[in-house]
């Protein structure tokens, strides 16, 4: 009996140490022990959406940018642009993104200035900070341009501490944290596989949102009213992964999403502002520690300059999303707080809201109405406004025109 138990223990121990060795080998062959903080490296794919189609390419560092040598040539100035999908350029080709347009504008003036695209769609400023710290700084940068979009605050986690800026662990679940401690590479691979299966497996958008709404305690009347307002074409597009389901699910599950983002009208929103300002402080500190110049740009949401999104015929609004007419003409509480924060920290600040409002008045819509991202002309508007500001205020120490 004793020898049988001993053999059993030896077998179990052998399997355990073999599994640890195999996980270690995954690390040797380059598999990550943390969740990705960038796009997948060296990726090329065509992305089809109900509103647009474009090609996406990432470089060897997982940035939506051409391949850039990490060693900076003499005389070159490098600025890292951190932000979300507006910086990444969702819906447009890489050469049409505003970082690329800025590169082209300065290139035509024979000025050796390079803007590096650090955009991550659907992510928040914490994700942008990790990307800047762990990837962007490899490029021997001279400056950092922090782009904060209108709904970034709503995506911030609460509460936050300095530990959040470390490379992200896959979960806060104790069981999975133990698994990650023992098998870091294998755990990350498994969780990312599960996430991919869940994302690709969604075929019943209405059913999933309805179940979630019931779990949240929403009334059947509210759920039915929301379902009746959903256009069939958009529901099909979501089920076919050609439209972000959050555009319509927020109208039921988070109808005050944009109010939280822009007006900071609840305690939860105030807590998220603390997370956002804490993250801004961390980014500025990281940049200045490396003697980089740093500046902030606010990118307004489409509801702040496009009256078409305030129409009762606009799908998110008709389905229940709370939108205020005052957003079209006034500055939001978020804008005021960011501007005041930048003044106090002596950080140059540009608010693109007026540029967007003036452009809409002159030329009409330049956004994808559902997603809210800029079309190519929107990126050109942003690049032109940013360049004028950089030159007028001498935000960065750029070489003079030749």
Describe this structure in words.
Strands 4-3-5-6-7 form a five-stranded parallel β-sheet. It has 16 helices and seven strands. The relative contact order is 0.13. Helix content is 48%, strand content 10%. The model has no long low-confidence stretch (mean pLDDT 89). It is an alpha/beta fold. It has a domain at 74-174 and 259-393: 3-Layer(aba) Sandwich (Rossmann fold).
Q: Which class of the domain at 74-174 and 259-393 in CATH terms?
A: Alpha Beta
- The CATH architecture of the domain at 74-174 and 259-393 is 3-Layer(aba) Sandwich
Mean pLDDT metric: 89
Number of strands: 7
Residue runs with pLDDT of under 50 for 5 or more positions: none
CATH superfamily descriptor of the domain at 74-174 and 259-393: SGNH hydrolase
Largest sheet: 5 strands, parallel
Compute the number of helices: 16
| Global morphology | globular
Question: Outline of this structure?
Answer:
The protein has helices at 2-28, 85-88, 98-108, 125-134, 174-182, 184-201, 205-215, 220-228, 232-239, 246-253, 257-263, 267-289, 315-318, 333-345, 353-363, 376-393, and strands at 44-48, 53-57, 77-83, 113-119, 143-149, 293-299, 349-351.
């Amino acid at each position: 009996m004793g020898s049988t138990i001993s053999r059993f223990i030896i077998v179990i121990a052998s399997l355990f140490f073999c599994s640890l060795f195999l996980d270690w080998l995954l690390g040797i062959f380059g598999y990550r022990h943390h969740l990705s903080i960038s796009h997948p490296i060296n990726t090329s794919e065509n992305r089809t959406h109900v509103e647009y189609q474009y090609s996406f390419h990432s470089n060897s560092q997982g940035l939506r940018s051409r391949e850039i040598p990490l060693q900076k040539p003499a005389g070159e100035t490098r600025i890292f642009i951190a932000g979300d999908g507006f910086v990444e350029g969702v819906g447009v080709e890489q050469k049409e993104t505003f970082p690329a347009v800025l590169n082209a504008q300065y290139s035509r003036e024979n000025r050796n200035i390079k803007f590096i695209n650090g955009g991550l769609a659907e992510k928040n400023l914490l994700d942008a900070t990790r990307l800047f710290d762990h990837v962007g700084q490899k490029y021997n940068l001279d400056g950092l341009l922090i782009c904060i979009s209108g709904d970034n605050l709503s995506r911030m986690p609460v509460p936050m501490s300095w530990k959040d800026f470390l490379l992200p662990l896959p979960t806060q679940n104790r069981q999975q944290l133990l698994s990650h401690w023992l098998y870091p590479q294998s755990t990350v691979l498994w969780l990312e596989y599960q996430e991919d299966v869940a994302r690709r497996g969604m075929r019943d958008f209405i059913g999933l949102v309805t179940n979630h709404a019931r779990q949240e305690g929403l009334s059947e009347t509210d759920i039915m009213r929301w379902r009746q307002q959903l256009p069939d074409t958009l529901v099909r597009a979501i089920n076919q992964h050609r439209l972000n389901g959050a555009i319509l699910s927020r109208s039921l599950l988070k109808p005050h999403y944009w109010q939280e983002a822009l007006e900071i009208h609840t305690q939860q929103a105030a807590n998220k502002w603390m997370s956002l300002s804490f993250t801004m402080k961390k980014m500025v500190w990281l940049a200045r520690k490396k003697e980089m110049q740093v500046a902030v740009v606010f990118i307004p949401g489409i509801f702040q300059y496009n009256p078409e999104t305030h129409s009762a015929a606009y799908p998110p609004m008709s389905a229940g999303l709370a939108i205020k007419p005052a957003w079209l003409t006034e500055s939001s509480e978020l804008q005021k707080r960011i501007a005041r924060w930048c003044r106090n920290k002596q950080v140059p600040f540009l608010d693109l809201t007026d540029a967007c409002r003036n452009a809409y008045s002159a030329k009409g819509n330049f956004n994808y109405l559902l997603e809210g991202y800029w079309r190519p002309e929107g990126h050109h508007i942003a690049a032109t406004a940013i360049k004028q500001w950089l030159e007028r205020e001498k935000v960065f120490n750029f070489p003079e025109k030749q």
